[in-house]
């Protein structure tokens, strides 16, 4: 595993710990003001196009200027960072993470939900947040705490207050499931904590959506289908009326809804209800993708999750036939591509290692026929557009100085995304291997 240099801000924290808690608190609340920087990479990818020989000026937490080196002079007092052989990109946006989960081959999902304390899970999440940021992902849509209540709201606050390093988060909190449809399930005699909040019917649904928003949800996540019993295929859970009510209630509060769905009927109901993205979509058909396209609903295919789970279940990648699940995914992705449905990019990271986020990008290029350019556009300007993040996802004056420099050119060679040399979030340098 690649080792990153420790973020500069954390070095300050260690010092603060040595010098006493007053300094630590002061630093936590007001980290060193970001300086004026002139970044000189080999090329700038602005979110759409690669520009060789461009430079970027960062002032405070914003991008001040971008353009050909000859047209931009360094502001007085600017620190120059030469980034030879590197491409400077907008900070990457992870479309589907669970900071409160860790890989299922370490601990099964059931055991994480039932046997791991909230404190343990939060402590892990702080490490996960750091790994995510240092992998170049300066924003993440975190789609459900999976039994850890509202802990994602606290993790987000800790990042915003500079207590721990991590990406800017959009959090879903508990997520909504129809009663009886989710897990863990032990026996009929024992009610155990569930991985999401159960809600049904008009009153129950309205109350649950409002409760989650009141406690800090930036968006609502709903499970439109799931397997009702062990070993069963997924089937729809919420009715059309229930899904529509979830979207109406959330929308009135300015929150988008995202749906977990992998059956055609679950995807159809979620689309008609007005969700903004459908997560997974493994059983999507040409008709469903056409409907999604018509309604402007994006597909977040999470191909890395299926790839990881298949390996946890014994598939030896590169040997033997592809598991049926992945064969099905390949076919549905062909249909999705053909339909022209908008693609959001997110891997369901947490199922696999946090910090390994670029696995999704690599698989989309290596196994699903996407070009590296399309994927890098998707992870920057594309995800920003789909998630309504107008202040990031591109390198333009006035936008947040969330930037990542990687060795090589990821618009041609997607594996270059792994070669992270520098991460800036709000103008603050988090890694710099020089
Ligand atoms: Zn997920």
Automatic annotation (TrEMBL):
It comes from the Bacteria. One of its GO terms (molecular function) is hydrolase activity, acting on carbon-nitrogen (but not peptide) bonds. The keyword Glycosyltransferase does not apply. The keyword Cytoplasm does not apply. Residues 1-28 form the signal peptide. Keywords: Hydrolase, Signal. Residues 87-428 form the Amidohydrolase-related domain. CDD domains: Met_dep_hydrolase_A. Gene3D superfamilies: Metal-dependent hydrolases, Urease, subunit C, domain 1. InterPro entries: Amidohydro-rel, Metal-dep_hydrolase_composite, Metal_Hydrolase, Metallo-dep_Hydrolase, OTAase-like. PANTHER family: ALPHA-D-RIBOSE 1-METHYLPHOSPHONATE 5-TRIPHOSPHATE DIPHOSPHATASE (PTHR43135:SF3). This is Amidohydrolase family protein.
